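Ticket #4471: structure export looks truncated?
Reporter: QA, pipeline team
Priority: medium

Steps to reproduce: submit the single chain below to the structure queue and open the exported record.
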Amino acid sequence: MTTPFAPLPVTDDTDPATAVEVVRDWVATAVPEAWRVAATRGGAAAIRAVRSRADYEAWYPTFAATGLVAPQWPRAYGGLGVSGRLARVLEAELAPYNLGRLNVLGLNLAGPTILAFGTEAQQARFLPGIVTNTEIWCQLFSEPGAGSDLASLATRAERDGDEWVLTGQKVWSTWAHFADFGMCIARTDPTVPKRAGITYFLLPMRQPGVEVRPLIQITGEHDFNEVFLSGARVPDAFRVGAEGDGWTVANATLSGERQMVAGPGSGGVDRIGGAGVDALVGLARARGRDRDPRVRERLAELWSLEQIRRRTNARVRDNARVGRLGPESSIGKVTNADVNVRTQELAVDLLGADAAAWPAGPDPLPREVRGFLRSRANRIEGGTSEVNRTILGERVLGLPREPDPHHGAAWQDVPRS
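Actual output as written to the record:
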């Protein structure tokens, strides 16, 4: 797939001040005036009032063509090829206009993995469509019997000429109902230890043999799915890495996933579930709780933790955006889950009785209650906090691995539920 781009005249040799002027000139001519006025008047909330999702999606190709969506990616694939330092300068200039990236699983999981392990042909085929949001991505990793122990997965892939035939079940597949492609790992050799017999594929989702069923959240929303593969086919040209080396490739994707949900500064999703500390300050004032010493203490602590997390995430993000994906992303994932849960707990504390009952209306849940309920998943998605603490202990701190009585045994000989 080839997509024409018209990247801005910014390279890694461009002076940061000049780069800022280039972005300002582009904003002044390309971003609709109503959005710019709203940005100066009331920030993200004001922008949302004048810019619908459909409006933004229709305009998004203008944004994608500039190279600003993924500025650290090569120019040929829709980026600008700049360093993390200059990318942060550009993003800071764009920040007031709330130009969120679409296709976040493609940008944060699939793209960096393909940059790190894909062939040039795969990079040319898939990266442009990720940047332009013309091909949506999902992740097909977890299974009903392989969640925390992902490497024990049972989905099978069998070679059939120049194609692979996949059979099995995946679960908790975010936005699979929108996806054109899925990052999928499957077992290609059951006679070797579990991590050695896995292969990584880029699976076309819109084909016979792929069935997507919704999983409805406690908030009533639909983000997650279970996916049934019944003879789904994928070309061998869409295999990433060597046959049997999928676990190595998958770890890059998992690192990107943890970074994506690591919170502010991650370059992915700033917050999954609820508002940030700044919004809670306004809520405390509205509820007459802003002079309460304990409330002020909790707000100050959470604000400080958010700034620390933002700076830590920025360092890890720079590596992730250019395909250097490591276990350090677990730091942000674990801390974000804890801090965001505590933030949303404070939000419902400030609401008081209104968090338990509210007048009927078109919105079934107050924003703070929805955020509180959604945040409960933060300690599970992207790998549980317990699993990520184990990763940090073993792969960052160098602590001994947890005992495994079946270490080295063939996958087919290991008991499974």
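Status: closed, not a bug. The export was complete when the record was re-opened. Leaving a note from the reviewer for reference: Confidence is low (pLDDT under 50) at residues 263-268.
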